[in-house]
Amino acid sequence: MNATESVKAIKGGEFLIRETAAESIFIPEEWNEEQLMIAETCTNFLAQHITPNLNRIDEQEEGLMAHLMEEAGNLGLLGISVPEEYGGFGKDFKTSMLVTEKLGAGHSFSVAFSAHTGIGTLPILYYGNDAQKQKYIPKLASGEWKGAYCLTEPGAGSDANSGKARARLSEDGKHYLINGQKMWITNAGFADVFTVFAKIDNDENLSAFIVEKDLEGLSLNTEEHKMGIKGSSTRQVFFNDCKVPVENLLSERQNGFKIAVNILNLGRIKLGGGTIGASKDVISLAIKYANEREQFGRPISKYGAIRYKLAQQAIRTYASEAAIYRASQNMEEATDMLVESGMDEIKAKLKGTEQYAIEAAIIKVHASETLDYVVDEGVQIYGGMGFSAEAPMDRAYRDSRINRIFEGTNEINRMLTVDMMLKRAMKGELDLMGPAQKVAGELMSIPDFGGAEEDGLFSKEKKYIAGFKKAILMVAGAAVQKLMTQLGKEQEVLMNLADMLIELYVSESLQLRVEKLVGIKGEDACKEQLDIMRVYVYEAAERILKSGKEALNSFAEGDELRMMLMGLRRFTKTEDFNTTQARRNVAAKLIAENKYCF
Amino acid sequence: MKILVCISQVPDTSTKIILKDNNTAISSDGVTYIINPYDEWYALIRALELKETGVASDVHLITVGKADVEPIIRKGLALGGDEAIRIDAAANDPYETASYIAEYAKSVGYDLILCGKESIDYNNGVTGVMIAELLDADYIGFAASIQIEGNTAIVNREIEGGEETDTCSLPVVIACQKGVAEARIPNMRGIMAARTRPLKVVTPTAVAPVAAILSYEMPPAKAGIKLVDPDNMDELVELLHSEAKVI
């Protein structure tokens, strides 16, 4: 890794072996006037239509959610990324991420919104033929029709391709008759259009169908009773010789699994955006409460224990956000490059997104776990009121939990992260071998004990992050060598490796974000952001060390283990500093602003 | 019928005011600006309603300020204005603002000029009436509803203990408050169209302000609340007399 390898846009997964230039990434501090106006529209929509109605939404008042979706449609929020020719606004991917983020604070509404605009609309938009798009997309973009997506079955969750739903051609050849049972179907109660996955006859792979709600043979079960997102309609959908016109086959026969996977890549990064929006909202509530609630004669925001929590909430959220918009920009640039090279726009979007599927999986895990941390500490900051259903933390706490489960559980996403990385290496798309051998060579050599240190505002963090890369290459390289084909079965090791990759990607994204921000605003205006970066990267080093040790101890032994543990400690070594003071600085800013302000 | 809506940029209501330059100015660092709510929610939206119902043909928005106020006026365009005018000047008092707006309004000739009853930063509430005076037009303040019939404006306004209905022939300047219209959220179509709608920058004939701000002072910190037992009226009277000094 050297400076000449620092390129404008790195390929998906390459963050492990290359450096990125700070000026090449997009940071949320760069939103333009139009994007900020769209964001404000989303915030006002939540304030006017959603927040005052959260109880009614959770009680699933008849027709309310469908009405709210229509209101969002009237404002154009359901058609942000739909091309103008199909009644949308054709905005870029980052703008659609911004809308998802802002509406992410809408609890059950944000789930209905995300399901409709993502899995409810995109399969038809991306894989439909022109007639299908003309028929369905304008109505979905306006909110006149609502969309849902039927993939999961009682026996087929993470293993989606094992579903039992079957389709067969009718005798007259005009219909497919679908039979089967789908569950956990978001928006089912009010959806007009379902994208349904089923295998035709005894096919190996799934096919996808567009199914309208009034078709004969489609029926709905009652609403599921859920821990959270109670206002989101979630039902089982039954298909009993459901007659679907043959022209409603989406894309080609057996192409369904590919559709499902590609749509999920997008869904994962979008989920990251939504959860970060929710995190910011919860942090703002926690700060306001801490500033108002007095104990022992002072607001509780004056106490270090509470300040620590507020700072940690913000640090994790700001870091996660850095990764989200870095990857969004990468996806957008990859798509643009493919379009320029002559590829059809929609194919380019799918390919561009797929190229960053590793980053999408990383973001899904990090952002959803950040929100879970934020709501947990949110409850704690609220104290007794945090446990009361009268205060907002109760709903925030319950609604957060699903994010670690849907769009692929965090365990599946962790495994995918490592699996995709290794598969790309084996295909020759990602050169992990060369850098891994270099690190192995470095292990045998005498460590570099200093010498001329580069002196700069970010030199320490850059050095730490370069070390994280070496640590991962060493542990992953050894795991592949030792475990070979057994690695896939050693899920604990895969989890360790995924955790290391996640910490690396987020740390680097955060460091690049702050570096770019300092370049724009100057060091004095970014003091708290610098503290955020220092604390996060310092803690990431500890987490990478822990995961690395666990992995190495599980498959290596003797001198080899000792040598690698020494290497791991060297690659994750950071200089100690006063993290308490840094967190106090971050908290002081939050408390003075009385809201999340980064 | 042509309507001119006066738009003012003000700090967001949650802004923490920080004084600078020896208390002679307010720091704009980190301040988020918004359209003055009375201008946006009531004056602008009522103007748009009059256009949507075919009463008005054009809705123009005008603001006085340097280039940094343009996001605000473009938000007005996103809500539905046809054209925006920015008078390129940093006005120091309401007279200066009113003079520039009146000068431009005179050059175009508007039938109806709407503004908010006051802006929420300085709360002077005098720009509208000054514009009317400078244009030699009628003025109605504190409007709670506005109807236009032919060449006549019918305005309900709140007065002490009740309301009155005024009629007035056009042209007229009306300052709006709650009740005139319902706030709207800019939609995607409007936001995207705002980029393509004209925003004219006009250099005014300079006018000297008639008032100057010498210094600002933060209000004193609120004192704690003292609770008095309802059975102890003597203590209450004593406190009102000796501490609050209101009786």
User: Measured on Cα atoms, how large is the radius of gyration of chain B?
Assistant: 21 Å
Instruction: Count up the domains of chain B.
Output: 1
Gyration radius over CA of chain A: 25 Å
Q: What is the name of the CATH superfamily of chain B?
A: HUPs
Which fold name is given in CATH as the topology of the domain at 426-593 in chain A?
Butyryl-CoA Dehydrogenase, subunit A, domain 3
Q: Which overall shape of chain B is indicated by the principal axes computed on the Cα atoms?
A: globular
With strands numbered from the N-terminus, the spatial order across the biggest sheet of chain B is 11-10-9-12-8-1-6-7-13
Query: Per the principal axes of the C-alpha atoms, what is the gross shape of chain A?
Result: globular
- Given the helix and strand composition of chain B, which structural class is it? alpha/beta
Order of helices and strands of chain A: HHHHHHHEEEEEEEEHEEHHHHHHHHHHH
> Which percent bin holds the helix content of chain B?
25-40%
Average of pLDDT of chain B: 93
Q: List how many beta strands of chain A DSSP finds.
A: 10
Largest sheet of chain A: 8 strands, mixed
Low-confidence stretches of chain A: 1-7
Protein name (chain B): Electron transfer flavoprotein subunit beta
InterPro entries (chain B): ETF_a/b_N (IPR014730), ETF_b (IPR012255), ETF_beta_N (IPR033948), Rossmann-like_a/b/a_fold (IPR014729)
Keywords (chain B): Electron transport, Transport
Family (chain B): Belongs to the ETF beta-subunit/FixA family.
